[in-house]
């Protein structure tokens, strides 16, 4: 089942009580709604649906599950016309100021032309669905951001799951510490060490992944932190959980290596007096910044002062890009 995009343009339809819906979904976990999907008919019940704010301030602001096949009804703005509708259950909604902007969406899920999606019912490419889910895990509402690294309480036993709105697990710091002591703080899949990128801010930060999902463990299970747990960065952690059962970290590491090899070497431009000039077209370039984007990085990207390159940092990565999509790497150590 392909996920779909639902569009809302406040300039065309005033959802006056949207903030109340945000609060109700956060409080109750879900709320039923009806949404127009234009002329689209190939939408399956059970599909994911993502709400894209359109118009002046674009961004991803909601997640839902489609609960019905499309059916015809009176057009919401023209009673003389008909449109197709689906029943949906909202699972989470973001306040508009917290929307995930296109600059982040385009960098992390480039399979969708986020700046050029209009209306509702368009399918999300299958190859982009995992990236959209990962973004929502990172930037979506806190109540839905289930962190699969959190350990249940106890003397290393994986205790009962505590249900609030979604399953949450209480972290056992001793199990985590034992895992980190054995395996270190670098991601075992991509090698990212947060302290090496973020300095003091990143010291000690890493997710801990259960090789066997916590939900499949009994109440008497005794976790072995060295055998059962592995450190993963948030991106790789989200990727292993895109499948059920989760992808083994060593398999994900092999996929990352294969992907980096398939991309091939990037152009390196040593000793340039003006590294911001594109070597292909001569247009001005902007530096590519890596790491999980915060508010300042997002603002700089929206203003066109930088480009966001994603969270995975790898050898030979490009460091500059231009408006035509040409990427190149400047060997700063070789510059004079």
TrEMBL record:
Domain annotation HNH nuclease: ranges: 174-238
UniProt-listed SMART domains: HNHc
One MF term in the entry's GO annotations: nucleic acid binding
Superkingdom in the source lineage: Bacteria
Pfam families linked to this entry: HNH
Name of the protein in its database record: 5-methylcytosine-specific restriction enzyme A
């Amino acid at each position: 089942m392909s996920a779909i995009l639902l569009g809302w343009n406040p300039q065309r339809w005033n959802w006056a009580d949207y903030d109340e819906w945000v609060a109700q979904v956060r409080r109750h976990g879900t709320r039923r709604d009806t949404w127009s999907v234009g002329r689209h008919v190939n939408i399956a019940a059970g599909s994911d649906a993502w709400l894209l704010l359109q118009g002046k301030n674009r961004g991803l602001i909601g997640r839902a599950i489609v609960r019905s096949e499309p059916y015809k009804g009176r057009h919401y703005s023209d009673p003389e016309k008909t449109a197709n509708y689906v029943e949906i259950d909202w699972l989470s909604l973001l306040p508009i100021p917290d929307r995930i902007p296109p600059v982040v969406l385009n960098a992390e899920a480039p399979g969708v032309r986020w700046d050029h999606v209009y209306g509702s019912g368009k399918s999300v490419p299958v190859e982009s669905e995992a990236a959209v889910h990962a973004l929502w895990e990172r930037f979506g509402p806190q109540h839905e951001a289930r962190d699969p690294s959190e350990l249940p309480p106890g003397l290393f036993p994986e205790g009962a799951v505590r249900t609030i709105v979604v399953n949450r697990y209480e972290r056992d710091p001793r199990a985590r510490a034992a895992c980190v002591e054995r395996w270190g703080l670098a991601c075992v899949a991509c090698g990212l060490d947060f302290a090496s990128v973020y300095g003091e801010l990143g010291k000690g930060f890493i997710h801990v992944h259960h090789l066997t999902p916590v939900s499949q463990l009994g109440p008497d299970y005794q976790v072995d932190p060295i055998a059962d747990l592995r450190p993963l960065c948030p991106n790789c952690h989200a990727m292993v959980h895109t499948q059920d059962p989760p992808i083994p970290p060593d398999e994900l590491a092999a996929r990352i290596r294969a992907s980096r090899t398939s991309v091939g070497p990037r152009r390196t431009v040593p000793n340039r007096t003006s590294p911001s000039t594109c070597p292909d077209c001569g247009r001005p370039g902007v530096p590519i910044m890596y790491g999980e984007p915060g508010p300042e990085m997002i603002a700089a990207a929206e203003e066109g002062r930088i480009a966001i390159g994603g969270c995975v940092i790898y050898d030979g990565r490009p460091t500059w890009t231009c408006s035509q999509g040409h990427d190149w790497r400047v060997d700063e150590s070789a510059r004079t």
